[in-house]
Amino acid sequence: MINLKTYKGFWLSCFIAIGMFSCVPTKNIREVNKSTPKQYKNAANDTTNTAKIPWKHFFKDPHLIALIDTALTNNQELNIMLQKIGIAQNNIKAKKGEYLPFVNFFAAADLDKVGEYTRDGAVEQNLNIREDEAFPEPLTNYTIGLSASWELDIWKKLRNEKKAAVLEYLASVEGKNFMVTQLISEIASAYYELMALDNQLTIIEQNLNIQQNALKMVKLQKQAARTTQLAVSRFEADVYKNQSNKYNIQQKIIETENLINYLVGRYPQPVTRGSDTFLEQQINPVLTGIPSQLLTQRPDIKQAELELEASKLNVKIARANFYPSVGISAGVGFEAFKPKFLTHTPESLAYSLVGDMVAPLINRNTIKAAYSTANNKQLETIFDYEKTILNAFIEVSNHLSKVENLKESYRLKESQVNSLTKAIDLSIRLFKSARAEYTEVLLTQREALDSKMEIIETKKDQLIANIQLYQSLGGGWN
């Protein structure tokens, strides 16, 4: 029979404890600053944003698209991140189960022999179970039944832990999305680097043919006493220099190919590319939209925001530790000293019902420290969120300016290359007719080679800057 006075006393104790712990410490944390400038410098105040375009539509090169597709399946770092997402998802299930009742099945058998000169021993010696049936010695005991325990989540501590786990899971998904944008950017940048190296190698080989022909001409002129050995040696030195540069570029091509293979998640092999059309690559304009779109488009900003929300819940969880925890445990089953008696009811029936309340009273330093740590971490995530927004805006501004400046630089270098290419033929004709010195021919060839190498480098920088602008706006993960 349930004793109502006992339960009244239990709940009265609960209310007293709640009153004692109602004055727990609190700390005010400032609100996060989400403000951004209204528009980018020298950019139209238009919400049209290239970042919303899927990466398969942003890139046009089928070889590059195939590489990215393979990397999104095989890249080891990305697959490691996917496993972390799986771990975060499992954590949600674990946290959800903590605020539900735990029910266990149990079965036990034990053997007990007490001393005769003890209270229990004296009782056993004089106790007969039934007529002509003595108390068994040693005493065996068999138990079978169900037990249940449940912590009443009256302060929403367990529910907040589950919500925090959900936010951490969503943050890990955004972290994966940010990794995807970085991976795509790295592969595309390395791909265009490889194409640029191919074109530089072609330019060096073409220049070597010109220089070797010029060397033959100078040797013939020396035989005709129209020039000196000094001119021959200078031309030979330039040939050797470019031959050396050729091997350097070949090594860079191997290393860049291997970098792409590593990102794609495969062993070294040739990378298919269309380097012949490198200088004809179209650079489509990237529309930046407005800065506030970064908050919803960039995965790293969304990740920081979710982590901030999780940190707020962690503060509530830490604060709930100051309050008493209330639990209920119960059990029901059968217990007897012989297995044959287990089915005899109600004699072998055993049950229990316990309600308990546990509250920290003295030496709460650990709880206070945990609460202070949770507040500090929340403030840390606020600064991290604001830093991520600031960094995103600066990245877009830098890449936007770089795209515009490289566009003008490429236009001027095209004019430079055209002028110096014409100057090579002119200098050789003048040298043949003894109207120019060999140094003028050498200088013109060097300048023409440098300008051709530079325009390829500028074209590569243009393509990579466009990719980086697309990534910094938050494009590439969708």
Automatic annotation (TrEMBL):
Annotated membrane topology: Lipid-anchor
PROSITE patterns the record matches: PROKAR_LIPOPROTEIN (PS51257)
Annotated Pfam families: OEP
Subcellular location: Cell membrane
Extent of the signal sequence: none
InterPro entries with a match to the protein in the record: MdtP/NodT-like, OMP_efflux
Coiled coil location: 403-466
Gene3D superfamilies: Outer membrane efflux proteins (OEP)
Keyword Mitochondrion: no
Keywords for the protein's UniProt record, in alphabetical order: Coiled coil, Lipoprotein, Membrane, Palmitate, Transmembrane, Transmembrane beta strand
One MF term in the entry's GO annotations: efflux transmembrane transporter activity
GO cellular component, one term: plasma membrane
Keyword Nucleus: no
Homology family: Belongs to the outer membrane factor (OMF) (TC 1.B.17) family.
Annotated protein name in UniProt: RND transporter
